[in-house]
Specification:
94 residues, mainly alpha, 3 helices, 38% helix, globular, binds iron/sulfur cluster
Length: 94
């Protein structure tokens, strides 16, 4: 059984602590190339982060609705959630 951790200790090792928080959360009205560029820079930080798996799990489990977490933008997380079958509606095995 997967446990949901209430611990935030993993955040102490977060690579984003050394960066401006604005890199990970879009300002009001940000669109198009500027948004994509910022998101790519945030993802590059996440790719070097030692706690990326914990961060990604957290963002998917809670869920976090805004910002880049674990290398996933809010659009990435929405796509992943839509691709997963709802809990309890998985295909039965014969
Ligand atoms: S994966 Fe990205 S958002 Fe998550 S803690 Fe690391 S740097 Fe921060």
């Amino acid at each position: 059984m997967r446990q949901r951790s209430d611990s935030w200790h993993w955040q102490l090792d977060a690579a984003c602590l050394a960066h401006d928080r604005a890199l990970f959360f879009h300002p009001e009205g940000e669109r198009g190339p500027r948004r994509r560029s910022r998101q790519l820079m945030a993802k590059a930080v996440c790719e070097q982060c030692p706690v990326q798996p914990q961060c990604r799990d957290h963002a998917m489990a809670f869920p976090e609705h805004f910002g880049t977490w674990g290398g996933l933008t809010e659009e990435d997380r929405d796509r992943l959630r839509k691709a997963r079958p709802p809990f309890g509606r998985r295909t039965q095995r014969a």
